[in-house]
Amino acid sequence: MFELEKERVFYYFEKISSIPRESGNEKAVSDWVLSWTKTLGLEAAQDAAFNLVIRKKASAGYETAAPVILQAHMDMVCEKTPESSHDFTKDPILLKVENDWLTSACKTSLGADNGIGMACAMAILEDDSLAHPPLEVIFTVEEETTFKGANSISPELFYSKRMINLDHADEKELIAGSCGGTGVMFTLPLSWEKCENSELGKNENAGYEAYEIKVCGLKGGHSGEDIHRGRGNAIQLLFRVLQEIVSVGGKVISVYGGTNRLAISREAQAMVLINDRQAAEEKITAMKAVFQKEFGKSAPDLDVMMESAVTKISENERICYLKDSEFEKMAAVVRLFPDGIISMSGDFPGQVDSSNNLGIIRAFPETGELQVISEIRGLYRTMVEDTKSRIEMLGSLFGAKVEYFAGYVSWEYAQDSCLRKTALDVYKKMFGEEMKVSTVHAGLEGGMFTEKEPEMDIISIGPSCQYFHSPMERVSIRSVKKFYGFLTALLAKLK
Ligand SMILES: [Zn+2]
Question: Ligand 1 center to residue 166 CA distance, Å?
Answer without folding.
Answer: 9
